[in-house]
Write a structure and sequence with these properties.
This protein is of the alpha/beta class. Helix content is 55%, strand content 13%. The protein has two domains: 226 residues, Tetratricopeptide repeat domain (Serine Threonine Protein Phosphatase 5, Tetratricopeptide repeat, Alpha Horseshoe), CATH 1.25.40; 94 residues, Tetratricopeptide repeat domain (Serine Threonine Protein Phosphatase 5, Tetratricopeptide repeat, Alpha Horseshoe), CATH 1.25.40. The longest helix is centred in the middle third of the chain and has 18 residues.
């Protein structure tokens, strides 16, 4: 299961690495070009906002305070956090919404235009995963540090919980722009648009090749295009930049298995297993395998571990409901099913409102049909 990184949320030294461009995408529509964009460009509307509400006040602390209060939901500007939308500063200002990269672009641009010192800050948290369709995402986070003459404010529009012990580091504009391009490339991957994803990840690598996430995501593009050896090349580059890049290790392990290179995979297995034991979606995958072998209790145990790590995903609760139902624990299964319905997205409510036994029977029939086709 390939993992790719996306930014929705003590500095270490980076070794000197030679950065060659990634291998070309061998695809008939590979020549996709993306326009150069200034993610910090200030629009006339942003200038008008600053002229009316911020710039009339000469005191830098007053400007900082007004800027910070303006973004509240009840403030003059207002901003709604939307983890699915990656925008430039001007786009985020126009739409008054976006993810952490969009918010950071907007606030850095506004603060600097207001004569304040502003920087992007990356939060180094314990790994957090989420899922979109059949894709596992490693979720990361950035926010903004803004300074006046006397005070330093950290601004964050998300609901991401950040521990006081979490490490933080200020990153460059180039690094942040690479994250922006990386996100757009990840969104193209969601849509299985490999040429567009390749173009964005290539641009991200060119913008700042030290951002390992772009190399990891490039490996997913190449692997989906069946360029396995090229995927190995870019993953090894990610590990050359950061030997502890667990997503790169995981993906490299999977590519080695796909290639049949069992010896190389075995050398990575111990480190990958340590990474996976904390990932609820790998526990989910193991539960599927246990369920196929009628090992119901093992599946239940795996899913309970997964839910302890991530309690707010309907997929985990639905999988637990199925395992409990098949093991004969119908009352507990119905409780898990109810939790799955509470968490399911609106467009899937009609599906999950159906009786659990009916859903399981339908899935088993589809599995049998698929087995006969194979």
């Amino acid at each position: 299961m390939l993992v790719f990184a996306m930014f929705l949320s003590a500095c270490s030294s980076t070794p000197l690495v030679r950065f060659d461009p990634p291998p070309p995408l061998l695809h008939e529509e590979a020549q996709v070009r993306i326009n150069e964009v200034d993610v910090l460009e200030v629009s006339p509307e942003m200038d008008a906002f600053l002229e009316k509400y911020i710039l009339p006040y000469n005191n830098s602390q007053t400007r900082l305070y007004l800027l910070s209060t303006a973004i509240n939901s009840s403030g003059v500007l207002g901003f709604d956090y939307d983890p699915a939308q990656t925008f430039t500063a001007a786009e985020a200002f126009e739409k008054r919404s976006g993810n952490c990269i969009a918010f950071a672009n907007m606030m850095v641009a506004l603060a600097r235009r207001a004569g304040l010192k502003a920087s992007y800050q990356e939060i180094i948290r314990n790994p957090t995963w989420t899922s979109v369709d059949d894709t596992v995402l490693l979720v990361k986070h950035v926010n903004v540090v803004i300074e006046s003459n006397k005070y330093v404010y950290v601004m964050d529009a998300s609901d991401v919980e950040i521990s006081q012990r979490a490490q933080r580091r200020v990153v460059s504009d180039q690094y942040a722009k690479a994250l922006y391009l990386n996100n757009l490339g990840a969104e193209a991957l969601f849509n299985n648009d490999l040429p567009l994803a390749y173009a964005y990840q290539s641009s991200a690598i060119q913008t700042d090749p030290r951002v390992t996430d772009s190399w990891v995501n490039m490996s997913v593009v190449l692997a989906r295009n069946e360029q396995m050896q090229d995927a190995v090349t870019v993953l090894q580059k990610a590990l050359e930049i950061d030997s502890d890049e667990y997503s790169a290790m995981n993906n490299l392990y999977e590519v080695f298995l796909e290639q049949g290179n069992l010896l190389a995979a075995e050398e990575l297995k111990a480190r990958v297993d340590r990474y996976r034991k904390n990932n609820p979606y790998f526990l989910l995958q193991l539960s599927y395998e246990a369920l196929e072998s009628n090992q119901y209790q093992q599946s239940i145990d795996l899913l309970n571990r997964a839910i302890r790590k991530k309690d707010n995903d309907y997929l985990l609760h639905y999988a637990l409901a199925k395992s409990l139902y098949l093991s004969g624990e119908e009352a507990a299964a119905l409780e898990s099913m109810q939790r799955a319905r509470e968490l399911a997205p609106q467009n899937l409510l009609a599906y999950y409102e159906r009786p659990l036994g009916e859903l399981i029977a339908e899935e088993q029939a589809l599995d049998q049909l698929e087995d006969r086709r194979q």
